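for the writeup, i need someone to sanity check this before i put it in the appendix. the sequnce is what the collaborator sent (i think, or maybe the updated version? ugh). structure was predicted straight from it, no edits. if anything looks off just tell me and ill rerun, i have time this weekend
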Amino acid sequence: MVYSKKNILFIFFFFLFSLTLFSQKTRKREVKKLQEKAQKVTIIRDNWGIPHIYGKTDADAVFGLMYAQCEDDFKRIEMNYIEKLGRLSEIKGESVLYNDLEIKLLIDANEAKADYKKAAPWLKKLLNSYADGINYYLYKHPEVKPLLLTHFEPWFPLLWTDGSIGAISTADLSTGELKAFYSGNNDKVAYVEREKNVQTGSNGFAFSPSKTASGNSILYINPHTTFYFRPEVQVTSEEGLNVYGAVTWGQFFVYQGFNENCGWMHTSSNVDVADMYAEKIVEKNGNLFYEYDQELIPVIEKKITISYLENGKLIPKKFKTYFTNNGPIMAKRDGKWISLKSNNRSMNSLVQSWIRTKSKGFEDYKKAMDLKANTSNNTVYADNKGNIGYWHGNFIPIRDKKLNWSKVIDGTTSATQWKGLHDVSETVHLYNPANGWLQNCNSTPYTVAGDNSPKRENYPAYMAPDGENFRGINAVRIFSKGEKYTLDKVIADGYDSKLSIFEILIPALLTTFEKDISLTDLEFSDLSEPIAVLKNWDYYARENSVATTLAVEWAYKLDPIIQKAYINEGEADQVENTKNFAKNATDSQLIPQLQATIKELKDKWGTWQVPWGDINRFQRLSGDLNLTYNDSQASLPIGYGPGSWGSLPSFKSSFQKNTKKRYGYNGNSFVCAVEFGTKVKAKSLLAGGNSGDVKSKHFYDQAEIYQKGQFKDVLFYKEDVEKNAERTYHPGQ
């Protein structure tokens, strides 16, 4: 059969028309399906803008949750998944190229897609609803212009499965080493190094009926994260879901929160969950092999292409990457290739993150823990039967106890392989201690219940290398004396602002000054008054305290060893490092730093007598991901200080470009106290407000109560939500 050119063109255009018609019909069917789904969901916004989502099924509730999250801050949802997809370079350019490569080596999108295909029907429904909720929001809001992700896929949540702000584990390997290995270039370009020793952390406290005025258990939820990292939500369905708390932007499970039966608080853990292996690489006939149990096994090679933005165009960069049985090659040390064994995403982790939110009590929660899939968290727990509990980590590989697993391990032998996972019963945990309280502040589990804590000698070193810190010391001091706790008393103790590190540092300064410094020397003549202020200080951070200003600014100029938050096996912890520093410090390590502090204050303020609240401020000018600060714009004074110096409420602030004031960016964000009685009672607080939209009245409506540490009542029961409803609607309305 012979076709003319005219006939061929006709067939071609007919095909295009048919395809367009087909896609339009498909689109209409898809939209109709989403509209029908939206009608099964009701969102009630209360008078603080908190979304309370009600759905017939769990999947309906997830649909509504994602839609509500998008209403509050779509850009944060999108950015979280751009990062987990390893596509930041398409937005930020070459400067984050090796951060993207690191993500692609550690989180395999193809594995996430495969997990989605084999997911249990109930989980697949939730994953589909996750994508549907976001995509329906984008359909209903064409004015929203995504940076990159115009369509969300149901497998995206399988890239990021536990909710933690520090969910990526790379052992002791740096992004700089990764770049040096894969580029051969050691200059510090094209990556942003992770901050290893910065104490972000969190606090979790639980009190049993023996310690409370009502005879009900109480849980205190106090994550310390970058501000606006998590909003406050409630998600309810007719399938037994009714959970309240903080959800990480773009995830469909409440990460830290409670239901009517129990509650859970996660603190960042330093349990060893990722290990470095030295590989013996052999080249043979142009091919690469690694030695394992005296055999040569081919190195797996994968080609990864990452595009980065440059002058408005996407430039592809191709990498040939390498893997052994242990994982991806991440660095080269002492001439040997270093691989990383880790578990940075898993479907079990996502399953665990969901099912714990529906726990009916202690036994249910323990079953969730038995999945052993949480790689980054400790857990503080309380329930309505009076139980309190603590687990230090959850995913803990079984290893040879004779080896120091914080070091590089020999990768050539099966003797150094993980031997499965420890049962939860073998891990560091504690249920219902006799003292009646539990605390964890990213500190050692061996002080979690004071004298009733687990004993270090009963566990392998890799199971809890975490050291003590000054928040942990502060918490044990307070709770050892506390009795008859109420929600308000728990909140008051949770806001204890004692900077306990200065109980060690200030006496050392005074001793050195009084012993070695002569005030007849003109160089030191301006120190007597500031020293007197510090000598008379009670170590509590307060808004009107000049001593707080002097101490905090001085401490940041001391040896950085006192700030080291996370330690490896066998290393001294923050408290030990501070004691050693104070014991051995010379006047040159203490006095010039105080003089520099006084000079800086005088240069900026005209006096060194600056109250802490004048310099330490809360400001939220926009909903941008990267905030800017301005001394000429309104801000609020904050009285408490950074958690790294011992304050239980953490407010980490820093000087910004062209500012003489410090502005907070990290610390107390979502905070909640919950009492589990016949009915749940709770109070909560959020930095700034629940909305990321500067035009919303809920962008800044919690700022003043945040400043004062005054909590709002949580509206958990629907009748209370309806009484305080600001808006009731279906998604899309």
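DSSP finds 19 helices and 29 strands in the chain. The CA atoms of residues 191 and 254 lie 32 Å apart.
thx in advance!!
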